[in-house]
């Protein structure tokens, strides 16, 4: 079997538009909850800076901030 061509992948993608798993009308709410969660977890980590608290507070806070930021950008839109 040969590998699919880039042109074939492009044409297939044009026939199946992207549909988000999170509906557009709930992205703002989810983004707000994630960003508030990130703020709370970051504050808790700042109160007790120990190595054992990194997987408990810091990593979930970083993930919540990252996903929350992306959802907020998607929810409010980017205008050029």
Describe the structure.
There is one protein chain. The chain has 80 residues and is mainly alpha-helical. The protein has a domain of 54 residues. The protein has 3 helices and no strands. α2 packs antiparallel against α3. The longest helix is centred in the last third of the chain and has 23 residues. The protein is elongated. It starts with 5 loop residues before the first helix and ends with a helix.
Keywords:
3 helices, transmembrane helix, Dolichyl-diphosphooligosaccharide-protein glycosyltransferase subunit OST5, elongated, transmembrane, mainly alpha, 68% helix, 80 residues
How is this fold's topology laid out?
Blueprint: H1 6-15, H2 27-47, H3 54-76
Helix pairs in contact: 2-3
**β-sheet strand percentage:** under 5%
Order of helices and strands: HHH
**Biggest pleated sheet:** none
Number of strands: 0
Structural category: mainly alpha
* Poorly predicted parts: none
Number of helices: 3
Short description:
By secondary structure, the protein is mainly α.
């Amino acid at each position: 079997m040969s590998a699919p061509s880039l042109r074939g992948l492009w044409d297939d993608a044009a026939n199946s538009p992207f549909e988000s798993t999170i509906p557009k009308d709930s992205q703002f709410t989810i983004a707000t909850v994630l960003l508030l969660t990130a703020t709370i977890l970051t504050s808790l980590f700042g109160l007790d800076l120990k190595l054992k608290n990194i997987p408990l507070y810091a990593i979930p806070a970083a993930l919540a901030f990252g996903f929350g930021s992306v959802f907020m950008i998607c929810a409010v839109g980017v205008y050029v």
